[in-house]
Amino acid sequence: MSKKILDLFNEEETDSLNLTPLIDVIFVVLVAFILIAPLLQLEKIELAQGGHKKTFSAPEQSSIFISVMPDHSILINKKKIPYSHLKQELVFLKKQHQGIVPQLAYDEKASFGMYQKVKNTLEDVGFDEMDVLLR
User: Fold this and answer.
1) Which CATH architecture best describes the domain 65-134?
2) From CA 62, how far away is CA 132, in angstroms rounded?
3) Under a CB-based contact definition with an 8 Å cutoff, are residues 107 and 134 in contact?
4) C-alpha distance from residue 58 to each of 44, 61, 67, 134 (Å)
5) Helix/strand number for the chain, H first, E second
6) What residue segments make up the domains of the chain, in order of their start?
7) Cystine design at 67: which of 1, 16, 40, 105 (Cβ 3.0–4.6 Å)?
8) 122 burial type by CB count under 10 A (0-12 exposed, 13-18 middle, 19+ buried)
9) Distance between CA atoms of 47 and 45, rounded to whole angstroms?
């Protein structure tokens, strides 16, 4: 008879699940999110306020004007430059024109990869900023 009683206790233990470890893990994750959430910094883009009509004036013509054409050719001041010589030409122009902000005209039919290559080359040469002109 004692064996039957022990079997009943064993059945009750195996039928129920112990949720305590699961609940502990959930609380730890919840506390981690609560502590980390205020520290996250999301990138923000400030949009212009609607309802105001502002007149836009184009930036003054720069002495370094770069065009990326639809066939991925690059023009600097209307002179065709192969991509392999772009960095050398930009170094030369930067030495000539200290403090000038280059202007990059990007054709919408050109690939984004070429725009990114030109932008990265400008950064490598040492330009801190550039004007992007859209056609």
Assistant:
1) 2-Layer Sandwich (3.30)
2) 12
3) no
4) 25, 9, 16, 11
5) 4, 5
6) 2-39, 65-134
7) 105
8) buried
9) 6
Which residue in this structure is represented by tokens 């403090």?
A: 99
Q: Specify whether the CB–CB gap between 106 and 73 falls below 8 A.
A: no
The Cα 115–Cα 134 span in angstroms is 12
The model's pTM is 0.53
Q: What is the pLDDT along the chain (135 residues), one digit of tens a residue?
A: 566 666 666 655 556 788 889 999 999 999 999 998 888 776 666 666 766 565 555 556 667 888 888 888 888 888 898 888 888 888 888 888 788 888 888 787 888 888 888 888 888 888 888 888 765
Q: Which two tokens stand for residue 65?
A: 């004007």
Q: Which amino acid belongs to residue 106?
A: Y
Instruction: Report the interhelical angle of 112-125 vs 86-96 (nearest 10°).
Output: 50
Which residue's entry shows tokens 């202007």?
103
Measured CA to CA, the distance from residue 28 to residue 39 in angstroms comes to 18
And the tokens for 42?
């999301």
Six-digit token string for 127: 């330009």
